[in-house]
Amino acid sequence: MTDKIKTKFSLGRGIIWVALTLFSAVQLFPLIWLIDFSFASNTEFFTSNLLIIPREIQWGNYPKAFTDGHFLLYLKNSLVVNTLAVAIVLALSICSAYAVTRMRWKFSQTAKNIILLGMMIPIHATLIPNYMIYDFLGVRDTLWSLLLPYVAFSLPQGLFLAASYMESVSKEIEEAAIIDGCGTFRLLGSVITPMMKSSLITVVIMTYLNNWNEFMMASTYLSTSKWKTLPFSILEFTGQYRANAAVQFAVMTLTAAPAILIYVLLSKHITKGVSMGAVKG
After folding, report:
1. Is 187:169 a contact under the CB 8 Å cutoff?
2. Given pLDDT bands bounded at 50, 70 and 90, which one contains residue 239?
3. Which of 202, 203, 9 is nearest to 96 (CA)?
């Protein structure tokens, strides 16, 4: 009887592993296809095969994509914009989560619900109103034209995750810290924030990944290369190297690499933070 149960269990696990492997292969295939063709020559693109083995690996596609696509400038801009957005969203998420879950005031739940409604509004639905406002204020084609909408549309998700986890934090710990003389900001910085590390790491990663590849707002509000972000490299290569698809694939690979690297290194924190917030909240 036991051997039969073990056989069924092993067979079931084997089927699950095969299904997950096939699903992973389907999900990863576009990335593999992108990298494969980025090392090919332009003449090798005209093939009926899904993947190719280049007769000679074209290493020169990447230096050309790196230098001619203003990659370093756009990478620096993306890092600056996204790092500032993450820092502001993180600070606002912690403070607003504490305000709506711990402080007693009449409209705390109403304020929380209004902020969370932002999760239902598509970021691109505000393109034209924001354009007119930025043009009137004179902040179009500046850092603020990207930073403001990125923060505004990332805050609802940050508040949701931070508040869900903060509600599970024991109030007795806070009361003990207040008795010992902790003020509000010291309580947040020294007591509550370290306990919310998993949830806050999730806020950081999700904010970074959501804004990293955003292009529509950046292309609408920016007209010069001073603050253009990394997706603009692809747009410039589309026109400059229209006849050389291999270089375009190389610049797309370079553009996608930072976000993929961040997700691979920190994916366990995303799962952990979301699950803890969902269960404890």
Report:
1. no
2. low
3. 203
